[in-house]
Amino acid sequence: QLDLLWTRKQNVMYNLFDWPTQKHSKLIILAIANTMDLPERIMMNRVASRLVCSSTLLFRIWDCSKTVQKRIALPLVCFLLILAKLFPQLFGNVVAALSGDARRCLDICRRATEICECARQKRTAEVVRMAHVTEAIDEMFSSPYVNAIRNASLHEQIFLKAILAEFRRAGVEEATVQQIYHHYVALCRMEGLQSPTVSEIMAICSRLGACRLLLVEASSKYLHMRVRLNLSQDDVMYALREE
């Protein structure tokens, strides 16, 4: 996954893509990136030049409701889902809003069915309802990290939102404090809050790093320190969502 191999000097990606171009090389590289225009967006010319003979395959965004509807065609699930035609679309939209991962969507669907089945064995006949889906989602996204984010201060939560904004902009799950700071200032203005100083930003970053919500690069160049999330973006978005 190229997004995770990105570094400031891009030596890792250069060496990787230069290898197949060597004489008598029999190496074929299949790489995946969440950003469709990743070579044009972040790759240096010397790295992009190694991709001259490469081909690119673009995958369309998955249709959550259709994916769920195809995969729940199991006897038990079909028995439980009386509204099988309407439920996948409703369920799919709910989960897709929390996670862009089709596998997680199907896992939640499976868990909701299991919760419903347990309830059906204890009481009368039951069908999968949104209450089961909500319980499955809470289980799937529940973790000490999520609870830590919910109990974080307002400015710490805004800092996490700024990280997500920078990751979406760059298409890379790593950023410098300086890059995040620009989004942070904009979010503070939207909330009507006073923008913190650089030292206050570094203190926020340090606290989030101490809680292991962030992985912070050890460096004396404060604004140029690189930051990564220590949990998935889906978990952060779920923890920050408004009830």
Automatic annotation (TrEMBL):
Matching InterPro entries: AAA_lid_10, Cdc6_C, ORC1/CDC6, P-loop_NTPase, WH-like_DNA-bd_sf, WH_DNA-bd_sf
Alphabetical GO biological process terms: DNA replication initiation; mitotic DNA replication checkpoint signaling
Pfam families listed in its UniProt record: AAA_lid_10, WHD_Cdc6
Signal peptide location: none
Cellular component, GO, one term: nuclear origin of replication recognition complex
Gene3D superfamilies the UniProt entry points to: 1.10.8.60, P-loop containing nucleotide triphosphate hydrolases, Winged helix-like DNA-binding domain superfamily/Winged helix DNA-binding domain
Transmembrane segments: none
Compartments where found: Nucleus
Origin superkingdom: Eukaryota
Main localization, broad class: nucleus
DNA-binding among keywords: yes
GO molecular-function term, one example from the UniProt record: ATP binding
CDD domains given in the database record: Cdc6_C
Keywords, comma-separated and alphabetical: ATP-binding, DNA replication, DNA-binding, Metal-binding, Nucleotide-binding, Nucleus
Residue stretches making up the Cdc6 C-terminal domain: 160-240
Family per similarity comment: Belongs to the ORC1 family. Belongs to the CDC6/cdc18 family.
Protein purpose: Component of the origin recognition complex (ORC) that binds origins of replication. DNA-binding is ATP-dependent, however specific DNA sequences that define origins of replication have not been identified so far. ORC is required to assemble the pre-replication complex necessary to initiate DNA replication.
Record-linked PANTHER family: CELL DIVISION CONTROL PROTEIN 6-RELATED, ORIGIN RECOGNITION COMPLEX SUBUNIT 1
Record's subunit section: ORC is composed of six subunits.
Protein name: Origin recognition complex subunit 1
Provenance organism: Promerops cafer (Cape sugarbird)
